[in-house]
Structures are given as structure tokens and as C-alpha cells.
Amino acid sequence: MFVNRSTELAELERWWASGEPLGLVWGRRRVGKSWLLGRFAESRSAVTHTGGARPAELELQLFSAEVGRAGLAGTRDLVERPYRSWDEAFDALASAGHASPVLIVLDEFPELLDSSPELESVLRSLTGRLGRPSPLRLMLCGSAVRTMEAIAEERRPLFGRFGIRLPVHPFSPHEAGLMLPKLSPSDRAAVWGIVGGVPLYLSWWNQSASLEDNLAELVCRPAGRLLSEGQLVLATEGDAQGLAGKVLAVVASGRTKFSEVQDAVRTDPSRVLDRLEELRLVERLVPVTEKSKGSRRAVYRIADNFLAFWLGLVDRYRSEIERGLGTSILPVLTSSLDDFLGPRYEDAFRQHLRRLAAEGELDDVVAIGPFWSGGRDEIDAVALAGRDRAAVLVGEAKWTRSVAARTIETALIRKSSALPATREPLRLAVAAREIVHGAAPTTLCITAADIFG
After folding, report:
1. What is the mean pLDDT of residues 395-411?
2. pTM of the shown model
3. Do residues 380 and 395 lie in contact, with contact meaning Cβ atoms separated by under 8 Å?
């Protein structure tokens, strides 16, 4: 199923219209990069080749075969006479693209660099020879995020030559909802809270089965697709020393302050935490009213829903599930879900408010985030507006089917007195899964139908 990605497709169309010959797409495994580029390529003369850490000669043979299947070989028999070098291949395709531009997608590009380290220099020379608009459009794609970002850095051959640099991230809540059309909004919220916005994980969810049945199938079997997926994420996005996995486990266990993480891993985790933030696996939170740098109130949280679910609930039982105890462990998992999903729903609430602000329904907003000042003065979402960053909205989200808004409104008004600056009239927002009742006329009432519908 291909849904949404309208923003990314629009960016790719702008790149195509610009006539620039080189583009870069990267993102974590499973986020749908190949699906995105496949959709973009549908209406174009295109060749897609996925690197596989093969010998260079074999990569060229397979690439030649892809060119032949795309009908771009001309009179040359690419089975009998495959391209002998990447230079030869690109020059031949550039000639074929003078009538109509040809798109070349080199997927898992870091794998190609392993066997053909000269490729970056070949592409630099090629882009210098191609005119504008270029008859050949080359899109480099990969899941090794750090490697892909490094390709565009200074002192690398392709620095400054990319017409587009497009990161692909997991779906936001309303985008994830598009992949779960058969579920109620409340159930969509639960599924997103468990597997996050990774399209492949969402596609694995059986919309005709209950939540418990899906967890039994995907998690509580030795062969469950999600049971081992957390290890795969850690192996793919981690580091050679394994420090990233240790840091993630520490944060997932509830030790969220920098000093707590440092004490647990017994080394300075600054660089690893920064990297995990770049990958959107970890989020550094400070009260929205404070500057992020230097704040002593900063805490870390696992930003990726699936990884939080796997590290926080699944991993501790994984070995026993693999030994066949999944059926008896399933009730333990499901009984822990409400506590787990509460903070996830708060995050979905904040993302929804950001979406409303981006669409112009909240005026002049410059930041949305949580606030805390010690004691009981914690607010799930505060929207700041204007140059003075005054609070114009405060909100709270509850992972319950229904809430009585008046009690929450009273608490929000009390808590807002701790904010450094507010702008009257201060608007209130209250969220529940299905029903918000008894709210004041000016209160913004939000349910899962608004966020995921």
C-alpha cells in the first residue's frame, strides 16, 4: 500500500523540473524510501539498481540487465556485452536521455561504494559534463544514514553537487492513520503507539484481528516479525562499540537525565546521544519555555514508538517467548499497554497541535512542547507565540476513552501560573481517545479521530 508522502513527492518533482543531475535520499531501514522512489519513477524512463556488496563486475552486470529490461540498451546486447565501467554505463544512458531524461536510482549506494570506491569521483566528473537540464538524473539512496549524510559533506567529491537532499522519516500520526483505514481512530492511536510510523510495521498489522491477536502473532511467537525487529534496528542504527544500544536501553529503563545515562554506561555519552537524536531514535526534551542548550532540566526519551515498546516491554521477555512462553506472556504485555501508551498519546497530541499551527489554525506559534517546573506543574503541551514567546495555549492529553474537561481546565489554569509569560486570552486544549465532555465553549477538544482520522 502506498499512502501519503505527498510532501516528499512534491520535492522530488521540483528536483526533476530543476534539471539538476544529482539527488540524495536517505532514511532508516523500513521507512519506505524504495517505495517512494518507485512511485516517483512510475511515469518516467527509469533504471533502479540496488547495491548488494557484490564484486564490481557483478554489480555492473546486474545494472546492465536492469538497463536492458528498461528498454534503454539501444542496439547493444547488454547480456553478451555488459558495461565494463560505471563511466561507460552513465555515458551511454546520458546519450539515451537526450530525447527524454532518464532517471537512475542507485539504491543502497554505500554498498556500491564498498566495491567501487571510485563511484563518487566518477559521478563528480559526470555531473561536470552533463548540461542543464541534464539528460540523466541520478538519485543516490541508502539506509546507512551517517554514510549517506557524509557523502554530501565538505571535502567529499560530491560536495555542493546535489540538487536535492531529502531525508525520509517515519509517518506522523495522521499519516499513519491512512494505512489503517479499517480500524477505529482509537485503535489507530494504539497501533501507532506500539509500532510508530514505520510503513512496513503498519502494513504487518492485521486490521481484521484484535490488538491482542496481533500482538500474539507479531510479538509472542518465536517467529514473530516484531520480536526480533528491535535487534535489527539496534544493529542497523547502532555503533561498532555497541554504546548506542546501551544508551537506548538505559533511557528506556527510565534513567533519562544525562548524568544518569553517563553513570550507567560509564563513559561520556554526548556524541552517541547527539547521533541518536539525529536518527530520531532519541529526543532531548526541555521545558518549551527554556533554551535547549545548557538547560539543566533536560531529559531524554525514546522518540521511536516501536523501539520504546520493544525495549520497554518486549525485550525483557524475548528469551522466554523464544522458548515458547509467548501465550502466557501475552496478558502481561497487554496489561502494561495503557501505562506505556499514555506518553505516546501525549506526543501525538503535541504533533497534532504543530500540524494545526502549520495549517494556520493557531496563529503566530513559534514553538510547541511540554512544560514542567517541579512539583505538580507539568503541562503536556504549551504553544508559544510571537517574538516574546508568550504562551497562547496550554493543553493536556489523557489516554482514556473519555474525560471530564472541567477538572482538567481548572488544573491547566492553575498550572499556567508557573509559565514565564502568557498572552490573554489563554486558550485551553483537552484530549481524550473518544470523548471530551463538559468543556468550556473556547476549549479546543481533541480526540483520536482528529489526530488519526
Report:
1. 97
2. 0.91
3. yes
Which one is the CATH code of 349-452: 2.60.40, 3.30.2010, 3.30.1380, 3.40.1350?
3.40.1350
CA distance 398 to 431: 6
- Sign for the CA dihedral angle at 246, 251, 253, 256 comes to positive
What are 335-340's contacts with CB under 8 Å, separation 24+?
337/190, 337/194, 337/313, 338/399, 340/193, 340/308, 340/309, 340/312, 340/313
Domain ranges of the chain: 6-167, 174-343, 349-452
Over residues 240-278, the pLDDT tens digits come to 568 999 999 999 999 999 999 999 999 999 999 998 998
The predicted-structure confidence for 29-64, as pLDDT tens digits, reads as follows 889 999 999 999 998 999 999 999 899 999 999 999
Average pLDDT over the chain reads: 93
Q: How is residue 247 written as a grid cell?
A: 544508551
Fold type of domain 174-343: Arc Repressor Mutant, subunit A (1.10.10)
Which residues lie closer than 8 Å to 375 by C-beta, 6 or more apart? none
Q: Which residue has the cell 503535541?
A: 350
User: Rounded distance, CA 428 to CA 393, Å?
Assistant: 6
Q: Is the dihedral angle over the CA atoms 215, 216, 221, 223 positive or is it negative?
A: negative
Class of domain 6-167: alpha beta
Percent of the chain with pLDDT strictly greater than 90:
84
Same topology, domains 6-167 and 174-343? Answer is no
Q: What Rg, from alpha-carbon coordinates, does the chain have?
A: 25
Q: Which of 254, 253, 251 is nearest to 277 (CA)?
A: 251
